[in-house]
Amino acid sequence: MSDIITIATQKGGTGKTTTAGALGAALTRKGWRVLMVDMDPQANLTFTMRAQDQTHGTYEVLTGKMPAADAICTGPGQAGKPSRTKEKPGDMPDRKIIPASTALSGADLELTAIGKEFRLQEALQPLRDDFDYIIIDTPPSLGILTINALTAADEVVITAQADAYSLQGIWQLHSTIQAVTRYTNPGLLLKGILITRHNPRSVLSRDLTGLIEETAQQMQTFVYQRPIREGVAVKEAQASRQDLFSYAPRNKPAQDYMAFADELLERRQGD
Amino acid sequence: MSDIITIATQKGGTGKTTTAGALGAALTRKGWRVLMVDMDPQANLTFTMRAQDQTHGTYEVLTGKMPAADAICTGPGQAGKPSRTKEKPGDMPDRKIIPASTALSGADLELTAIGKEFRLQEALQPLRDDFDYIIIDTPPSLGILTINALTAADEVVITAQADAYSLQGIWQLHSTIQAVTRYTNPGLLLKGILITRHNPRSVLSRDLTGLIEETAQQMQTFVYQRPIREGVAVKEAQASRQDLFSYAPRNKPAQDYMAFADELLERRQGD
Ligand SMILES: Nc1ncnc2c1ncn2[C@@H]1O[C@H](COP(=O)(O)OP(=O)(O)OP(=O)(O)O)[C@@H](O)[C@H]1O
Ligand SMILES: Nc1ncnc2c1ncn2[C@@H]1O[C@H](COP(=O)(O)OP(=O)(O)OP(=O)(O)O)[C@@H](O)[C@H]1O
Ligand SMILES: [Mg+2]
Ligand SMILES: [Mg+2]
Predict the structure, then answer these.
(1) Which SS3 state, helix, strand or coil, does residue A186 take?
(2) Whose CA is nearest to atom 30 of ligand 1?
(3) A76: DSSP letter
(4) Is the Cβ pair A10, B42 closer than 8 Å?
(5) What single string gives the DSSP state of each residue in A151-166?
């Protein structure tokens, strides 16, 4: 039975897509069977996984045009791609994704009937035995696409930079999570806050990290021990459409993301 | 007759709010009468301008509950606030803003009647003689709030980081701009692309800046000459709820934003 994890926050640019992609790649490297789901009309994760498809994707699945299994695209393994290290990335297992397309931005207006929040949950149900982890990327909004992703999920991870706007975004998402656990998904767990694009030298970052830790306690959750440091390789890997570990496995953000995946797995055993 | 400028892109975290705030503050310092409009339910600009108000704001204006003039909040002048420089910021003129509130996130579902795209344009019409510039901040989405902001605007400025995801965001917004000029606002001008959070040392930034410049030419627009450099003072000013020029006028991003405002003014004369 797979574990469905949604990465979310309304605050833009906090690393939702980067985190979803890195977590998926880390778990795949550790041998788990992983399905990615791109619920963002920007389709950034779909682009980086080279899985663009305008007719088979999350839009068709949400609007009932096809079952989720038919929309799964197998992104090419990242083997043999130019990467920054001498270390041969080796043959990466194919990574599977249900891609996003621009049609998805119309979903807000199309999904109006009763039960509109449950479309993704129902669609993923038949796939749960085929994967160990299903990881969902979401747009920077609290609309119907993110509500679907929260309703379908077992756990939600919030990404935040250590700054005032991200902190506000955490509180805004928290009230949405409370509504979702009350009306559509009582089992949803807030599985921690991950600090991204971290600049350890800045005083403000340290102050805001402290505030975010206090906030996490108030929400009965936690902050992942190791923030993700800022590193140029992240943008480079995304532009060259490779996962971070194939592109630059020894780079700081890659190490931090591997530590994040390890902590997530440890905490799962503890459940 | 005021000039209405909307700052937009679907890509999250590219500096829309930072740019709207800095441009408003720069024009105010140069003696222009400026009104800010916050169309983002996150209400980040409203927070930084200390103008939170849950009953008078863009939501009430869009849904016809009150005229725009009644929703204008006068943010406190930034005089005398602790700032990083010895230079006394001096008495800043009050800055005016129509604030956002969380109620705004429901606007997508409420604004359904015919003419829903024109609500903001109609509401701002009576104010145009009271201000020289009206600057609109938007959420990271291409939904009805951003459509209203584009329909109301004379010009739109796109913010982008020099990375692959921002470049995709430019193309996505461009097709929305084309639809807006065709159906709701034929006079809308794409008034350039501003590169933000720029890291001049990174090779990728240079490559992507080149690609963005090519894209701008294809869209018959331009990239502002001086990218905005990354600087910690931006987040610090936002957290302490001051405008960038009151907080750290000699800081790199403050200088870059002043150069951006100067170029925008120059190009306006040239029109
Ligand atoms: N650790 C990091 N180091 C350097 N750059 C990073 C890091 N994490 C993310 N970025 C960059 O920051 C930008 C925003 O990240 P990303 O697109 O993952 O955020 P997002 O929350 O998914 O954005 P959106 O709200 O638009 O969906 C991207 O250009 C990405 O490459
Ligand atoms: N030049 C800069 N130097 C350093 N930090 C910056 C700079 N510009 C923006 N930032 C920071 O980057 C983050 C994103 O900026 P901002 O919130 O203005 O983007 P946005 O496009 O408005 O985001 P959203 O899509 O959520 O509305 C903020 O924390 C801001 O402080
Ligand atoms: Mg994203
Ligand atoms: Mg913003």
Answers:
(1) coil
(2) A235
(3) P
(4) yes
(5) HH-SEEEEEE-SSHHH
A6-34 pLDDT tens trace:
999 999 999 999 999 999 999 999 999 99
Chain-chain contact of A11 with B10 (C-beta, under 8 angstroms): no
Name the one residue in this structure whose structure tokens are 């701002």.
B124
Provide the pLDDT confidence category of residue A78 given band limits of 50, 70 and 90: very low
SS (H, E, C) chain B: CCEEEEEECCCCCCCHHHHHHHHHHHHHHCCCCEEEEECCCCCHHHHHCCCCCCCCCHHHHHCCCCCHHHHCEEECCCCCCCCCCCCCCCCCCCEEEECCCHHHHHHHHHCCCCCHHHHHHHHHHHHCCCCCEEEEECCCCCCHHHHHHHHHCCEEEEEECCCHHHHHHHHHHHHHHHHHHHHCCCCCEEEEEEECCECCCCHHHHHHHHHHHHHHHHCCCCECCCCCECCHHHHHHHHCCCCHHHHCCCCHHHHHHHHHHHHHHHHHHHC
Query: Which of B11, B8, B10, B29 lies closest to B19 in space, CA to CA?
Result: B8
The pLDDT score that the predictor gives to residue B96 is: 95
Which residue has the CA at smallest separation from atom 25 of ligand 2? B12
DSSP state letters, A93-133 = PPEEEE---GGGGGHHHH--STTGGGHHHHHHGGGTTT-SE
CA separation for the pair B11, B13 (Å, rounded)? 7
| Pairing assessment for the beta strands A133-137 and A34-38 based on DSSP bridges | parallel
Q: Which residue of B has its CA nearest to A45?
A: B165
The helix (H) or strand (E) run that includes residue A8 is strand A3-8
Shortest distance between the Cα of A90 and any Cα of chain B, in A, equals 25
A235 CA distance to ligand 1 centroid (A)? Answer: 8
pLDDT, tens digit (0-9, with 9 covering 90-100), for B7-30: 999 999 999 999 999 999 999 999
Q: Which residues pair with B135 in a beta bridge?
A: B5, B36
Nearest residue of chain B to residue A167 (CA atoms): B239
Query: In a 10 Å sphere around its CB, with 0-12 CB exposed, 13-18 middle and 19+ buried, how is residue A181 labelled?
Result: middle
- Around ligand 2, the residues with Cβ closer than 6 Å are A 11-13, 140, 161, 163, 165; B 12-18, 40, 42, 44, 139-140, 196-197, 228, 230-231, 234-235, 238, 253
Give the DSSP letter of residue A216.
H
Closest residue on chain A to B106 (Cα): A143
